[in-house]
User: What shape does this take?
Amino acid sequence: QVQLVESGGGLVQAGGSLRLSCAASGRTFSIYTMGWFRQAPGTEREFVAVISRGGGRIIYTDSVKGRFTISRDNAKNTVTLQMTSLKPEDTAVYYCAADNRPWDTIILSQAAADWGYWGQGTQVTVSA
Assistant: This one.
């Protein structure tokens, strides 16, 4: 079991930046692949970024490439999503997720329903 708590959301103007953090507790953090997802009102939860257990492999959804950066610190049990050049369409509740399935299995579908552990979410609102 792992417990996840997100922080860092808020209201920002378009073009601005926010840094989301996810603190993990419970079993050994480094055994988990970590991901960020987001869900806007009336939409399904969508994949944003994923980082492997050691941090050496990273994948982003196309809409955030070049603007968002995912990173992790296994010594501090944290994963971070640095968001820059924010756009109104980035407005959503952002969720941290963890899973201990093999990397190749996780990235095959990137479906939110397949991930094992979730935080409570943090709201990000980008005004035009």
Remarks:
- The longest strand covers residues 18-26.
